[in-house]
Amino acid sequence: AIPLVVAISTTISAQKGLLIRNRTAFEESRKITAMVFDKTGTLTEGQFGVTRVVSLVDQVDETALIRTATALEQQSQHPIAQGIVREAKTRNLAPLSISDFQSITGKGISATVDGKKVAVVSPGYLKENGIELPKGAYSSGAETVVFVLQDQQIIGFIALADTIRSNSKEAVQRLQEAGIKVYMATGDNQKVADAVAKELGLDGVFAEVLPDQKVRIVKDLQQKGQFVAMTGDGVNDAPALAQANVGIAVGSGTDVAAETADIILVNSNPTDITNLVEFGKATYRKMI
Ligand code: ADP
Ligand code: MG
Q1: 20 to 30 A from 63, CA-CA: which of 24, 114, 163, 232?
Q2: ipTM of the assembly?
Q3: What is the DSSP letter of 40?
């Protein structure tokens, strides 16, 4: 029966925005009991707009802050980087040159600008490195915030907002109706994660997750007896996709993620996964 199923699944899934790379993935997808979604670009649009630019030192104004951050972000492919670069374009800011660019995996980026060591980093990076915020400087809503550092001192921050995809809620509800627990894993901060989780009615959320911690999340769920599907887009997501029972690479993501995955979510649309699961269950019901 497998070749028939493969034939059916390949035909149908092509129309539904899925590329099935592994013959058994379709068969396996009906067994999924836990679904772990990426936030950025899967449950959300992955299009960050800058909402606030706040300088925390006298010598640096808003324009200088965005200009410095942009010098670094031009080298990055992260959706946050794209949002900041777009903002600089809107403001017609001339580019600065940099050297020694480095990516701090899952936490930010750094480089040398004008002889100074500059970094754009996550709240988690500040905590880890014992860098304290000036009191009352920063009250966060459900925004993604990155801090701009100069010689390891905070000079300001940039807040950004992404929007939840219009069909994410439906995707989550239908998966839950099919008996699947729906989780989200994100490198973003807890407040943003909680806001998305509440809006979508998720069963659980993992925030401020470093890329290499995603494997652990999958393993823990598996140890609790769950049959786990996971979506991911980055190079660093590949081990988690390999560990998952069904690894799903987001279409807009990296080649490494795609090569490791069983399924590619061509349009990064979460309802396409819901369709697959429902279709898988229905097909097997008919065949048995
Ligand atoms: P996610 O894919 O959930 O956004 P990442 O691991 O890619 O998670 O990023 C985690 C966090 O690290 C981001 O929320 C941000 O704070 C920080 N970060 C990552 N890349 C960049 C970047 N290019 N510029 C600024 N901050 C970054
Ligand atoms: Mg990522």
Answers
A1: 163
A2: 0.96
A3: I
Helix (H, G, I), strand (E, B) or coil at 161: strand
pLDDT digits (tens, 9 = 90+) for 101-126: 999 988 999 999 989 999 999 998 99
Q: Which two tokens stand for residue 210?
A: 């470093």
Euclidean distance between CA atoms 170 and 200, whole angstroms: 9
Q: How far is the CA of 233 from the centre of ligand 2 (A)?
A: 6
Nearest CA to ligand 1 atom 19: 108
Ligand 1 center to 75 CA (angstroms): 14
- The mean per-residue pLDDT over the stretch 212-235 comes to 92
Tell me whether residue 249 is exposed, middle or buried, using C-beta atoms within 10 angstroms of its C-beta: 0 to 12, 13 to 18, 19 or more: buried
pLDDT tens per residue, range 258-278:
788 899 888 888 999 898 888
**In one letter, which amino acid is 264?**
I
Of the candidates 173, 203, 165, 204, the residue with the CA atom closest to the CA atom of residue 278: 173
Tell me, using a 6 A CB cutoff, whether residue 78 lines ligand 1: yes
Q: Distance between CA atoms of 150 and 156, rounded to whole angstroms? A: 9
pTM higher than 0.90, yes or no? no
Ligand 1 pocket test, candidate residues 77, 85, 118, 122, most atoms within 8 A of CB? 122
Q: Rounded to 5 degrees, what are φ and ψ at 60? A: -115, 120
Domains of the chain: 2-45+165-287 (3.40.50.1000), 49-161 (3.40.1110.10)
Closest Cα to atom 18, ligand 1: which residue? 108
